[in-house]
Structures are given as C-alpha cells and as structure tokens.
Amino acid sequence: MQDARFERVLLRRPDLRTSFPRKFAARLRTQTVVRVDRRGKYLLIELSSGDTLVMHLGMSGSFNVEAGSSARAEADKHDHVVFEMSPSATITFNDPRRFGFMDLVTRKAMAGHATLSKLGPEPLSPDFDAAVLARACKGKKTSLKVALLDQRVVAGIGNIYASEALHRAGLSPRRKASTIATRGGAPLDSAVRLTAAIKAVLIDAIDCGGSYAADGGRFRVYEREGNHCLTKGCRGSIKRITQIGRSTFFCPVCQK
Ligand SMILES: [Zn+2]
Description:
This protein is α+β, with helices and mostly antiparallel strands. Helix content is 21%, strand content 23%. The chain folds into two domains: 114 residues, MutM-like, N-terminal (N-terminal domain of MutM-like DNA repair proteins); 89 residues, Helicase, Ruva Protein, domain 3 (Orthogonal Bundle), CATH 1.10.8. It is elongated and about 60 Å long. The structure holds zinc ion.
C-alpha cells in the first residue's frame, strides 16, 4: 500500500455510519500513501497532502484487494466504496451493516481528533504495562470488565478477549476497576497479572490467525456457559452475565 497512488475513488452512497467528508473523493485523488498505521481498531493512511484517511471496519466491513484497475464486474450491493490505485489495483470496501467509518483528517486536526486522541495505548506495545493500566483504573468505579472495553484505558481489546484475559488472570469481571491499583494509582499484583494475561491472550489470537473465532476450542470461557472451568484444580463452571449490554463469561469460583 505504501507509495500507492489514489487514481479514482467511487462512492456508491453518501454515507456509512456517518456522512463522507466533503469532497472526499476529490481530496483523495492523486494522493500518494506515505505511511500506513493502526491505532486501536482504526486504520490510518497518511497521504502526501498531509491529510490522513481514517477508516474503521465497524461491525461487518471488509476490504477486498484485486489486481487491475476496474471495480468488480458485478458489484455487490454492499460494495460502498471503491479505490482505484496505481500501480494497478482496486480496493473495494464492502459493509452490509454500514457501521464502517471513513474520514479525512488534516495534519493539524489529527492531534485533537475526537476519537483518536483519546485512545489508550496499544495492548501489545511496550507502552502498555501494569503501571499504565493501574493508573488508568485508579479510582474507577466501573467494573473491571467494562474498564477493559473502554478504548481510553487500552485500545482495541474486544469483548471476547476481555473475558478471556480476566479468566487467565483469575480476576472477577465484576470487581471495581479501582481494585487493581493503590489509591495513589500504583499497580497491585492483580494489575501485573492482568497485563500479562491481556498480552498472552492477544498473542495467542494472532498465533491462530488473528481470531479465536475460527478455532472455538481455544476459548477458556467465551460461549462456554455451563461447562466446567478449565483452571487447574478449579471445580467451578462458567457463568454468563451481561455488562453494559455485552455478554461476559467467567468462573465465579476461581475469578476473584
Ligand atoms: Zn474456575
């Protein structure tokens, strides 16, 4: 993608989750890709103009990349955006549920971008450690599980991985987030265990192809309601509860 140039941009509708910015296609045309980056679940394409193309797949979005300069001969009705690139390639954004997101952000606006500037550290980066997690959870009265889903605490931990990490760390999803830190915000042992568990769960997920979903056998708690707990020596069984409208799976016996 780096050094590729936007030759033509086709928008098949005026919006995804939100409207496309004004002159979206015109501002992209003839721009060269300087850098491709990711922040949480946002894909950032820095352009030669200084603008950054910010994209999010939403719930059901996907990119299809094909060699050649013309869009799929038979466009799917959910092919909403087509980028024709040179050297010759066509990138099609397909999104049946239209929760995807695309924006063009100027260099100056990027630092103050409403969503991106508030994102916490990437979980697998060295910036994310027990001290950082504890500081973010200090004084937080929300549950630990809800705190892990907060992109300002740590970027890009999904619902499934939050449950899995808490189980590995032996921490209840219902305890207050503040309980992993001292009053001053220093990490307790639980913050150290949770940080290690988050990294381990994500590394495992990458090792099996980016998602546990293709390999359900590897989940310890997710969608295992009623099954026995896999923690060594634990005789508990997995329960499901709902927190902020999302399912949480956990073992009430070994997760404290
Ligand atoms: Zn257990």
